[in-house]
Design a protein that fits this description.
Structural class: alpha/beta
Distance between the termini: 36 Å
Order of helices and strands: EHEHEHEHEEEHEHEEHEEEHEEHEHH
Shape: globular
Strand content: 15-25%
Strand order of the largest sheet: 3-2-1-4-5-9-14
Number of strands: 16
Largest sheet: 7 strands, parallel
Length: 346
């Protein structure tokens, strides 16, 4: 197929680009090369692209998108503003870049008759996911309060009885409860894509990526994830600073596994919108991640600080069995091997 890959110069996008080529697809990249993400204007990546296969432009520009779609069979849409999204002053940028940009792209796809889309969504659409209460069973956690966090009570409460909840794996049919500007924008992207799919008789795979790490992980930018933040501290000879008590559970998944799931989803699209969790399937705590990275580089041990961000979720871990069953995909990069690779590149 001839694929338009938006955001192809980004961390995940570069790996998706490579996977698409490995599987025999032709790829055209559309990327704005926004300076807060690409201070070098993406020179290291763009130098590898054949002439004419990179369009520098914004998905919010209808003319640019219309031109980029010429002759295309399908779209991988990764272009987005990412980040914690807890600052309310970021709301206009999230809504403009992610939601308006997606709307412009979908409208152009409808005009061009392109009906296949793989959409980069995120696990953040679940909020705190699901918890298990000894009295009330599986429940959606209640919101964490600032006074509880200040006093070191980090576990989200059962909304019915107030007891701390045990974490549970989250499936794609779990209730959605975005708790930040970024999370709300990713869910809005899914809703827009679902409307487009129904109206145009088209197909969407919404790939809810979990905590992605690996080669090319952004460093020292607003887009840096927790692994990059820890590595930056270790490179300075400082211990990683772990918020709360380090017991936050996440699913850390290697970027090459994410790229493989994205391309397989694009190749196996069915009518309508189908969501897929993309995670390793093995939950780990943020404290464990920090300790493993420190061991890998021989740096100082992490310190837990008790600091917190009110918009952060406590636990969010995936049930990725749908992707394994329907996409013939499974993660292949083990946690220890992936961290050793990342540390060697640091």
């Amino acid at each position: 197929m001839r694929i338009l890959l938006t955001g192809g110069a980004g961390f995940i996008g570069r790996h998706v680009w490579s996977e698409l080529l490995d599987r025999g697809h032709e790829v055209r990249v559309l990327d704005s090369l926004r300076p807060d993400v690409h201070p070098d204007r993406g020179q290291a990546f763009t130098a590898t692209l054949p002439a004419g296969e990179l369009i520098v432009g914004d998905v919010r520009d209808a003319g640019t998108v219309t031109g980029a779609l010429a002759g295309v069979d399908a779209v991988c849409h990764l272009a987005a503003k990412v980040g914690l999204g807890v600052d309310l002053q970021d709301l206009p940028d999230f809504a403009s870049t992610n939601d308006h940009g997606t709307a412009v792209l979908l409208a152009a796809m409808a005009r061009a008759g392109v009906g296949r889309l793989a959409l980069a969504s995120s696990m953040v659409v679940y909020g705190d996911g699901l918890g298990s209460c000894p009295e009330h069973g599986a429940v959606r956690p209640g919101a964490r309060r600032a006074d509880d966090l200040r006093d070191g009570r980090y576990e989200p409460p059962c909304p019915a009885c107030g007891r701390p909840l045990a974490a549970a794996l989250v499936g794609e049919d779990a209730p959605l409860d975005p708790r930040s500007g970024y999370a709300a924008s990713k869910l809005a992207q899914e809703h827009l894509a679902a409307v487009w799919a129904r109206s145009a008789g088209a197909s969407v795979a919404a790939l809810r990526y979990h905590n992605v790490y690996g080669p090319g992980l952004p460093r020292d930018t607003p887009y840096a994830g927790v692994a990059a933040i820890f590595l930056s501290a270790l490179r300075r000879g400082e211990p990683p600073r772990v918020f709360e008590d380090g017991g936050q559970r996440r699913d850390f998944v290697h970027v090459r596994d994410v790229a493989a799931a994205t391309v397989r989803a694009l190749e196996r699209l069915a009518p309508g919108l189908r969501a897929f969790n993309v995670g390793s399937g093995t939950p780990r705590t943020v404290g464990e991640m920090a300790a493993a990275l420190a061991d890998s580089v021989g740096g100082p041990a992490p310190v837990t600080t008790g600091e917190y961000r009110l918009g952060d979720v406590r636990h969010i871990t995936a049930d990725s069995s749908r992707a394994r069953a329907e996409l013939a995909w499974q993660p292949r990069v083990g946690f220890a091997d992936g961290l050793a690779e990342l540390a060697a590149l640091a």
